[in-house]
Design brief:
Blueprint (H helix, E strand, L loop, with lengths): L14 H22 L4 H29 L4 H23 L7 H27 L5
Length: 135
């Protein structure tokens, strides 16, 4: 069983965004698997870098849609994105300096943030942008 399970309730009703969300889930699962297998150092850092870079890419896709379609909660949503990326970057910097390790707690934070964000926050824009009912 994967550390983070993709379920239909995570769908926002848009193929491109759903595919990107699945990729984020996959990246967290890969990071978890690498940690469980005892991967350390630069190799483990590679998974973290990929997660950060893909997260930025995904957020830019969502934010472009917000701009194009005039999403009214854009600023609040973008602020959540910025806070999450800042936290990831802080952790990555600490990891690279040898001051942090990929821990179960960190992975749980990633899982909970991603699942909550998609289920609660992204489903709000899904209702506005794609007509997907919230709930």
């Amino acid at each position: 069983m994967a550390f983070v399970e993709w379920t239909p309730e995570l769908s926002v009703g848009n193929e491109e965004i759903d595919a990107q969300h699945r990729r984020l889930v996959d990246l967290v699962n890969q990071l978890h698997e690498a940690m469980v297998e005892g991967v350390v150092g630069e190799k483990l850092g590679h998974f973290l870098v990929e997660l950060v870079e893909y997260t930025k890419y995904h957020f830019s896709t969502e934010e472009r849609l917000f701009e194009e379609r005039g999403y009214p909660a854009r600023d609040e949503h973008v602020a959540e994105h910025q806070d999450f990326v800042a936290r990831l970057l802080e952790f990555m910097e600490a990891y690279n300096e040898g001051n942090a390790a990929i821990s179960v707690g960190m992975l749980q934070y990633l899982r909970e943030w991603i699942l909550h964000h998609i289920r609660e926050v992204d489903r709000q824009y899904a209702a506005f942008l794609f007509g997907v009912p919230v709930g």
